Amino acid sequence: MSPDVAVDLVVEALQIVMLLVLVLVVPGLLMGLIVALFQAATQINEQTLSFLPRLVVTLLAVIVAGHWMTTTLMDYCVSVFQRAATLAT
Asked: Which residues form a coiled coil (predicted)?
């Protein structure tokens, strides 16, 4: 395997990982911001109030985007194995 192919594989893997993490983290961050604004406006400092909505939104993101995430990872794995089959030793 040449260094160029290895670098391409690593770069593509990192791009996919960043994309998948963003799909899961951004909704939780937005919900955390909304809850923080609500807590600041009402001066309620309950820990479960800040944790539970973020958990629910993250779980909903997994449910909604789970099929797409799985398909993306499977496509990348198939691509890696196809590239590996064409490499000359």
From this structure: none
